[in-house]
Design a protein that fits this description.
By secondary structure, the chain is of the alpha/beta class. Helix content is 43%, strand content 16%. It is built from 8 helices and 7 strands. A 5-stranded parallel sheet has the order 3-2-1-4-5, with helices on both faces. The protein has a two-stranded antiparallel ribbon with strand order 6-7. A hairpin with a 2-residue loop joins strand 6 and strand 7.
Length: 211
């Protein structure tokens, strides 16, 4: 059965990554734009991860050590197991499930409680693609297809729409009319390559504003 997608706030939240190779590096690189504090536990770190950690000293802590049971911290928002040691992968999965901590065990969907999606981020617009752990390559391919066809201005346009959300809630009481208001703004923005002047917004707002 397909998994339900759930967007989670991870800014300044603790994330634990077990493993220090290229797979861990790519997972961490995907996470960084969302602002978590990442602790990486491994006896070895690839050059790319070491270099990334040096530029993100306040966000990434490298702990060069053998994995221990005590490394699974109940404060972790979630855990990623990205080692080449099957026994460690299994142990991390079991410990996290016992403590009800979400865990992603790379390339082992049966041991994971959530799947790491392919992510496309443009400002506050975030699109994630998942194949339920069946084919990460396909998920990445689909994400790239979306990126190729998504206009460059869309992230900016979403930010502009967000600026008027408060006013719409205050000045338009009916949900269906608020929905139509934002649809009209979105259509205008698309037709004008992301440009949405204040005077245009005010004119459209007058059509829906409570009288």
């Amino acid at each position: 059965m397909a998994c339900f997608p759930l967007m989670v706030e991870v800014e300044n939240k603790d994330v634990t990554v077990i493993g220090g190779g290229m797979v861990a590096y790519h997972k961490i690189k995907t996470l960084l734009p969302f602002g978590p504090v990442i602790r990486v536990i491994s006896e070895y770190f690839c050059v790319e991860l070491i270099s990334l950690a040096k530029t993100q000293e306040n966000r990434i802590t490298l702990c060069k050590k053998k994995f221990e049971v005590s490394d699974i911290d109940d404060e972790s928002c979630f855990v990623i197991a990205a080692t080449d040691n099957g026994k460690v992968q299994t142990l991390v999965s079991e410990l996290c499930r016992e403590r009800r901590i979400p865990v992603n065990v790379v390339d082992e969907k049966e041991k994971s409680s959530f799947y790491f999606p392919a992510v496309l981020k443009k400002e506050e617009l975030v699109i994630s693609v998942s194949t339920g752990g069946n084919s990460p390559v396909a998920a990445g391919h689909i994400r790239n297809k979306i990126a190729e066809n998504l206009p460059a201005y869309y992230g900016k346009l979403i930010d502009i729409l967000g600026e008027y959300r408060g006013r719409a809630l205050d000045e338009i009481s009916l949900y269906c009319e608020r929905k139509d208001f934002f649809k009209e703004l979105l259509v205008y923005g698309e037709e004008h390559e992301g440009n949405l002047p204040l005077e245009v917004v005010e004119d459209i707002l007058l059509k829906y504003k409570d009288k």
